[in-house]
């Protein structure tokens, strides 16, 4: 698992560390990391380092100081460096002196045109963790004139450091070098896109950090958590997943959710609903019945996709919530819960529930999301005493106790009709196997996204192709576990 820490936690850790090391040490370590990545990008985009040109966009604080020191290091490798000062009277003095000593050029924003046009790489040191709001007009104008790839120092300027929100001009970086750990800006929403490839440079601050504010799973974590049957297991011990989804008119959701549960490795899938014929036709291994009341025993239920929001869907959801087993409630089930909160009374308080809304369903259930997605999902998880998984380019998964897991999409190909049904089937499969519901939601989100990416291979796909690709995705994460 990789941690993500808020700027508040990072600053506190930085203060503790600063007290133990000579002044300027952390900035030079940080800047050295920036210079290393800059050299790598120059090699990649301009075929070498020496003789290439770099422009530094330098703001008023330490972020600009990092950029200036990085410029000084790059000068030693024969790079032509020009610093563009956005706020000359507040420029980091030591950094500026270091760049000048190393033979760097310094210009003010008004005369930056030639340096920006000639640059093979631009380093964004406009603003870092003290950033508020979008780029101010002077900075925005310069950034708009950039054509070379941008390397962001700590974070892309103009993005909100703690929410990743972008509501005006902001830097779009090819890569970002950050210090000590990832911050929310690197993994949330638009911020994740604007950050480009994120490189974390250790500067010592990481040793001072408390428990992370959010975590990201990697392939090996998912591979280790995904259940693998042992010699003692049989289909019942592996877990039976109930799927209450779809309808005679809309059988697709039932077929996709049941298929994903099968492919996710559950021991048996019991389908209950009016799409039984369609499910049997596509997945003969599924035991299909017409109603949840005669479905037989299951260890977890997936409920909602395509069940409708009328009386029949209401009764299905009520039955499932009172069954005393973990439930993944998606789509129409969420709309039903939003419309009739009394449905929650059917749930035994100890029964784990995983809610998987998209943004519209989330708003119906818990109100508008606002710019701070993580805070909104945390509040909803606490309010409904459920795991809440908010879908998006960054999927945010909150536990009622405040823990948050995020999953970053590899591409947007999986954003297709029926994709959510696949996700809920995977979650159901893990819940039935007894995986912790918060981890189950995180692992399912990871495998869902990976399956989409593997199926797509750079071209559009339908949700059925994602179901087909689940075994490939599972092989990939299991291989990562083996190789460490
Ligand atoms: N954490 C660590 O361990 C280490 C951190 N280090 C580095 O320090 C950085 C944080 O530095 P920092 O606190 O000096 O402020 P920073 O982000 O440079 O902002 C400067 C000023 O910009 C302004 N401003 C605000 N918003 C703006 C906007 N939208 N557009 C334009 N301007 C805007 C605002 O001033 P204002 O004009 O509002 O008075 C603000 O005070 C951090 O990101 C990392 O790079 C490393 O050196 C070593 C280890
Ligand atoms: K920056």
From TrEMBL:
<keyword id="KW-0630">Potassium</keyword>
<feature type="binding site">
    <location>
        <position position="420"/>
    </location>
    <ligand>
        <name>AMP</name>
    </ligand>
</feature>
<comment type="subunit">
    <text>Homotetramer.</text>
</comment>
<feature type="binding site">
    <location>
        <begin position="128"/>
        <end position="134"/>
    </location>
    <ligand>
        <name>(6S)-NADPHX</name>
    </ligand>
</feature>
<keyword id="KW-0456">Lyase</keyword>
<protein>
    <recommendedName>
        <fullName>Bifunctional NAD(P)H-hydrate repair enzyme</fullName>
        <ecNumber>4.2.1.136</ecNumber>
        <ecNumber>5.1.99.6</ecNumber>
    </recommendedName>
</protein>
<dbReference type="GO" id="GO:0052856">
    <property type="term" value="F:NAD(P)HX epimerase activity"/>
</dbReference>
<feature type="domain" description="YjeF C-terminal">
    <location>
        <begin position="218"/>
        <end position="477"/>
    </location>
</feature>
<feature type="binding site">
    <location>
        <position position="124"/>
    </location>
    <ligand>
        <name>K(+)</name>
    </ligand>
</feature>
<feature type="binding site">
    <location>
        <begin position="391"/>
        <end position="395"/>
    </location>
    <ligand>
        <name>AMP</name>
    </ligand>
</feature>
<feature type="binding site">
    <location>
        <position position="421"/>
    </location>
    <ligand>
        <name>(6S)-NADPHX</name>
    </ligand>
</feature>
<feature type="binding site">
    <location>
        <position position="358"/>
    </location>
    <ligand>
        <name>(6S)-NADPHX</name>
    </ligand>
</feature>
<keyword id="KW-0547">Nucleotide-binding</keyword>
<dbReference type="InterPro" id="IPR036652">
    <property type="entry name" value="YjeF_N_dom_sf"/>
</dbReference>
<comment type="function">
    <text>Catalyzes the epimerization of the S- and R-forms of NAD(P)HX, a damaged form of NAD(P)H that is a result of enzymatic or heat-dependent hydration. This is a prerequisite for the S-specific NAD(P)H-hydrate dehydratase to allow the repair of both epimers of NAD(P)HX.</text>
</comment>
<keyword id="KW-0521">NADP</keyword>
<feature type="binding site">
    <location>
        <position position="154"/>
    </location>
    <ligand>
        <name>(6S)-NADPHX</name>
    </ligand>
</feature>
<dbReference type="InterPro" id="IPR004443">
    <property type="entry name" value="YjeF_N_dom"/>
</dbReference>
<keyword id="KW-0413">Isomerase</keyword>
<dbReference type="InterPro" id="IPR029056">
    <property type="entry name" value="Ribokinase-like"/>
</dbReference>
<feature type="binding site">
    <location>
        <position position="157"/>
    </location>
    <ligand>
        <name>K(+)</name>
    </ligand>
</feature>
<keyword id="KW-0511">Multifunctional enzyme</keyword>
<dbReference type="GO" id="GO:0052855">
    <property type="term" value="F:ADP-dependent NAD(P)H-hydrate dehydratase activity"/>
</dbReference>
<dbReference type="InterPro" id="IPR017953">
    <property type="entry name" value="Carbohydrate_kinase_pred_CS"/>
</dbReference>
<comment type="function">
    <text>Bifunctional enzyme that catalyzes the epimerization of the S- and R-forms of NAD(P)HX and the dehydration of the S-form of NAD(P)HX at the expense of ADP, which is converted to AMP. This allows the repair of both epimers of NAD(P)HX, a damaged form of NAD(P)H that is a result of enzymatic or heat-dependent hydration.</text>
</comment>
<dbReference type="InterPro" id="IPR030677">
    <property type="entry name" value="Nnr"/>
</dbReference>
<feature type="binding site">
    <location>
        <position position="63"/>
    </location>
    <ligand>
        <name>K(+)</name>
    </ligand>
</feature>
<feature type="domain" description="YjeF N-terminal">
    <location>
        <begin position="10"/>
        <end position="211"/>
    </location>
</feature>
<comment type="similarity">
    <text>Belongs to the NnrE/AIBP family.</text>
</comment>
<dbReference type="GO" id="GO:0046872">
    <property type="term" value="F:metal ion binding"/>
</dbReference>
<dbReference type="GO" id="GO:0046496">
    <property type="term" value="P:nicotinamide nucleotide metabolic process"/>
</dbReference>
<keyword id="KW-0067">ATP-binding</keyword>
<comment type="similarity">
    <text>In the N-terminal section; belongs to the NnrE/AIBP family.</text>
</comment>
<feature type="binding site">
    <location>
        <position position="306"/>
    </location>
    <ligand>
        <name>(6S)-NADPHX</name>
    </ligand>
</feature>
<dbReference type="Pfam" id="PF01256">
    <property type="entry name" value="Carb_kinase"/>
</dbReference>
<dbReference type="GO" id="GO:0005524">
    <property type="term" value="F:ATP binding"/>
</dbReference>
<dbReference type="InterPro" id="IPR000631">
    <property type="entry name" value="CARKD"/>
</dbReference>
<dbReference type="GO" id="GO:0110051">
    <property type="term" value="P:metabolite repair"/>
</dbReference>
<feature type="binding site">
    <location>
        <begin position="62"/>
        <end position="66"/>
    </location>
    <ligand>
        <name>(6S)-NADPHX</name>
    </ligand>
</feature>
<keyword id="KW-0479">Metal-binding</keyword>
<keyword id="KW-0520">NAD</keyword>
<dbReference type="Pfam" id="PF03853">
    <property type="entry name" value="YjeF_N"/>
</dbReference>
């Amino acid at each position: 698992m990789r941690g993500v820490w808020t700027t508040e936690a990072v600053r506190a850790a930085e203060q503790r560390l600063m007290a133990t090391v000579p002044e300027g040490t952390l900035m030079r370590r940080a800047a050295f990391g920036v210079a290393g990545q800059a050299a790598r990008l120059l090699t990649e985009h301009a075929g070498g380092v020496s003789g290439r040109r770099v422009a530094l966009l330098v703001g008023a604080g330490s972020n600009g100081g990092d950029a200036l020191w990085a410029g000084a290091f790059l000068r030693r490798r024969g790079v032509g460096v020009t610093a563009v000062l956005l706020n000359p009277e507040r420029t980091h003095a030591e950094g500026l002196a270091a760049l000048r000593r190393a033979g760097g050029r310094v210009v003010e924003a008004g005369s930056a045109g030639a340096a920006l046009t000639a640059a093979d790489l631009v380093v964004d040191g406009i603003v870092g963790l003290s950033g508020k709001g979008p780029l101010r007009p002077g900075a925005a104008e310069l950034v708009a004139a950039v054509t070379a790839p941008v390397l962001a120092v700590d974070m892309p300027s103009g993005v909100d450091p703690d929410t990743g929100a972008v509501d005006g001009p902001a830097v779009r970086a090819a890569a970002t070098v950050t210090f000590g750990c990832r911050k929310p800006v690197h993994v949330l929403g638009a911020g994740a896109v604007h950050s480009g490839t994120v490189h974390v440079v250790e500067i010592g601050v990481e040793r001072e950090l408390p428990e992370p504010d959010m975590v990201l799973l990697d392939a090996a974590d998912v591979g280790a958590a995904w259940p693998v049957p042992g010699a003692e297991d049989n289909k019942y011990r592996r877990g039976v997943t109930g799927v209450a989804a779809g309808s005679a008119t809309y059988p697709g959701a039932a077929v996709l959710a049941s298929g994903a549960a099968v492919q996710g490795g559950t021991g048996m899938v019991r389908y209950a609903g009016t799409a039984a014929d369609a499910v049997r036709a596509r997945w003969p291994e599924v035991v299909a019945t017409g109603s949840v009341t005669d479905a037989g025993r299951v260890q977890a239920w997936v409920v909602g996709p395509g069940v409708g929001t009328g009386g029949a869907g209401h009764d299905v959801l009520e039955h499932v919530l009172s069954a005393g087993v973990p439930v993944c409630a998606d789509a129409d089930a969420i709309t039903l819960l939003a419309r009739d909160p009394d449905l929650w009374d059917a749930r035994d308080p100890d029964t784990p529930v995983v809610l998987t809304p998209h943004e519209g369903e989330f708003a119906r259930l818990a109100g508008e999301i606002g710019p701070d997605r993580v805070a909104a999902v945390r509040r909803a998880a606490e309010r409904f005493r459920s795991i809440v998984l908010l879908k998006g380019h960054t999927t945010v998964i909150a536990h009622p106790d405040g823990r948050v897991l995020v999953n970053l999409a590899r591409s947007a190909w999986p954003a297709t009709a029926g994709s959510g049904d696949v996700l809920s089937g995977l979650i159901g499969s893990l819940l039935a196997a007894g995986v912790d519901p918060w981890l189950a939601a995180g692992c399912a989100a990871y495998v869902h996204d990976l399956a989409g990416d593997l199926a797509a291979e750079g071209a559009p796909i339908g949700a059925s192709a994602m179901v087909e690709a689940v075994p490939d995705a599972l092989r990939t994460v299991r291989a990562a576990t083996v190789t460490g």
